Structures are given as C-alpha cells and as structure tokens.
Amino acid sequence: MFRPITPIVKNLLIINIALYVVAAFVLPNLSAIFALYHIQSPRFIPTQFLTYMFMHADGWHLFSNMFGLFVFGPLLEEFIGPKKLLTLWMVCGVGAGVLYSGYTSFQTAQIDAQISSFYTNPSPELFTDFVKDHRNMFKNSVYDFIDAYDRNPDNPVLIQQAKDNLMAVRSNSISFPMVGASGALFGVLIAFGMFFPNTQLMLLFPPIPIKAKYLVLAYGVYTVYSVIIDNPQDNVAHFAHLSGLVIGAGLVYYWKKSRKSFY
C-alpha cells in the first residue's frame, strides 16, 4: 500500500513531469540548455549542475525516477521533515552532477594523454590501443583503416587521418550531456535504507518481499560493479548514481550525529 503523497514529493513530481512535457512538446531546445554538458563543452554553463536533474531522456526515464520518489519519498518526508527531504534531494542531485563532471574530466584527461603520446610518436600500435579503449566511438570501418595504416606506418596521409580520428573521439566524448534525477533519487534510496533498514518492501519483478537495507545494498553493489566494468555500450551514468548514494549516506550520517536532530 502506498503512503499518502506529501508536499515536497508532490511538488517535485509536478515540476519534473511539467518540465518533461514542456521540453518534449513545447520547447524542444530546453533540454539542450538544461542538460549537464562536459565542463569543456562550449554548451556548458554552471547552472546546469542544478537544471540537469529536471530533464529526462524519455518517458521511461522520467517514470522510473518519479516512481522511486513516489514510493520512498513520502515516508521519508514524514520522518525527517520537508526541509530535510528537499535538502537531501537537491544536495544529492547537484553533488552527483559535480562529481560526475569531475569523473568525466578525469576520463578526458586520459584521452588527452593517449592523444599526446600518439602525436609525439605516431604508430599503428598506439592507434590500435586507442581504438580498443574507445571502440564504441568508432565505426567498424576503422579496422580497414588500421590494416592500411599498419602496412604503411610512415605514410603522412594515414598519420593525419589517425590524428583526425583521435580528435574526433575527443570531441564526441565531451559532446554528450547528462540528464535525469537519478543522482537525487539514489540519495533518497540510501537515506530510506539508513533510516528504515528493516522495513519490508515488495518488489514488482519478481514479486517477493525484501528488507530496505538489502534492496539498497543490491543497488549499491550493482552500481559499483557498473562503474568498475565501465561497459562502453552502456549509456547510463552509473558514477552519478554512485555519487548520489555516497553523498546521501554522508548527509544522513551527519544528521544522525547532529545534536540538533532527533529521530
């Protein structure tokens, strides 16, 4: 049985759903302005650390985040109060965006190091290693180019083509924005698990009961695994999810230790 919807949860649902409708049907350019771009992208502006979490890629993305807020948010709001729930949502959302940007900047720095090495000493081996590390950014035709380059490693035309390919990958890597309230939602999940660890929940698929602490633990383990594996075919920002979990846990720990809070 779902709990009655609470004020902050209701307002967050309304804002997110309304902005999705506006971006999808009225102002399609809104998502491009509100989404969080790489900090080296010409489209990046600092306000995107806040606005990105009110944009969603599609209806399912919106539903999954808002359903999680609808399920876990009301009891949490009743327990810690509306101000703390809103603080939790906003701090975890903004914080996840900031940490994710730091993570992508680190990845870009690694790309820059590989490109610098190739520019210093161009070779088919270095180019092949780069393709292996970023194979999701290349078309299959790149392997024909590798064969040609491997047979003619000193050909200046092929070397320039290799450089162009490397720079294209770098350009693309900073062009994809992040949207969604998942970082904020994961903060709510970890808070729910820490405040109500033994609350029995019923999963939808499969329909089995599970305690909140085990559900959050499962989410956490899967998220860490996804960050470590870093599947190039996976377009989910798992590091942002992990950031939301960590920030949320830290915030709840602080509240529990604060003498001004009583739970």
From TrEMBL:
SUPFAM superfamilies with a match to the protein in the record: Rhomboid-like (SSF144091)
Keyword match Nucleotidyltransferase: no
Family per record: Belongs to the peptidase S54 family.
GO biological process: proteolysis
Pfam families: Rhomboid (PF01694)
Cross-referenced InterPro entries: Peptidase_S54_rhomboid_dom (IPR022764), Rhomboid-like_sf (IPR035952), Rhomboid_protease_S54 (IPR050925)
Keyword Transmembrane: yes
Protein name as annotated: Rhomboid family intramembrane serine protease
Domain Peptidase S54 rhomboid: 48-103, 172-254
An MF annotation (GO) of this entry: peptidase activity
Keywords annotated in UniProt: Hydrolase, Membrane, Protease, Transmembrane, Transmembrane helix
Membrane topology (UniProt): Multi-pass membrane protein
Organism: Mariniradius sediminis
Sequence intervals crossing the membrane: 12-39, 59-76, 85-103, 174-196, 208-229, 235-255
Places the protein is found: Membrane
Predominant subcellular localization, coarse grouping: membrane
